[in-house]
TrEMBL record:
This is Isochorismatase family protein. It holds the Pfam family Isochorismatase. InterPro entries: Isochorismatase-like_dom (IPR000868), Isochorismatase-like_hydrls (IPR050272), Isochorismatase-like_sf (IPR036380). Residues 4-140 form the Isochorismatase-like domain. One of its GO terms (molecular function) is hydrolase activity. It comes from Neobacillus notoginsengisoli. The lineage of its organism: Bacteria, Bacillati, Bacillota, Bacilli, Bacillales.
């Protein structure tokens, strides 16, 4: 499993619970799916990287912290970002390179912003991506419900490719840490 890492994007209290950015759609289901994936990653010794958005709240506030239901452990990595793209002006790419990672399992919040942008960017940086279908969420906007946004992204991102690297959308009950992309190359 040495070539896979788990990215948990913006799973912060202020986004999942609100009040400013949330609560996200089906937050209890989301937290259970995320916990299951994180527990499996720990069991399989897959590196876990939590990405925190510095715009969510002040760093010393509860809203800024990773949701306590999925709180990082001492061996997990925590990186911060300011943009929707977790790679932009961060050392994420360099860190993954030191781990020789070429497959990312991604989940988090919000679907149409940071999750989508990071998934797409990862393929242009030579990573295959598994987006956890039931491991990301968002809120309603003025055009679409959160449920529709999630379904739309699961549909559109599945099989999205950039030359040699692509995204597969898979449910958390599948063997998501298996680098299934290699079956198609």
């Amino acid at each position: 499993m040495g070539n896979t890492a788990l990215l948990v994007i913006d799973a912060q209290v202020g986004i999942i619970e609100g009040p400013k950015y949330g609560p996200v759609y089906e937050k209890e289901r989301l937290l259970e799916s995320m916990k299951k994936v994180i527990d499996e990653a720990r069991e399989k010794e897959v590196p876990i990287i939590f990405i925190l958005d510095t715009d969510v709240a002040e760093p010393d506030s509860m809203e800024y912290q990773v949701h306590p239901h999925i709180a990082p452990l001492k061996d997990d990595t925590i990186l911060t970002k300011r943009a929707t793209d977790a790679f932009h002006h961060t050392n994420l790419h360099e860190y993954l390179h030191t781990l020789e990672v070429n497959h990312l399992v991604i989940m988090g919040c919000k679907t149409e912003y940071c999750v989508d942008t990071t998934c797409r960017k990862a393929t242009t940086l030579d990573y295959d991506v598994t987006l956890v279908a039931d491991g990301h969420s968002t809120t309603d906007n003025s055009v679409l419900s959160a449920k529709d946004i999630i379904a739309h992204h699961n549909c559109n991102l599945h099989r999205l490719e950039n030359i040699d690297y692509f995204i597969l959308v898979r449910n958390s009950d599948e063997n998501i840490f298996k680098h299934k992309h290699l079956d198609y190359k």
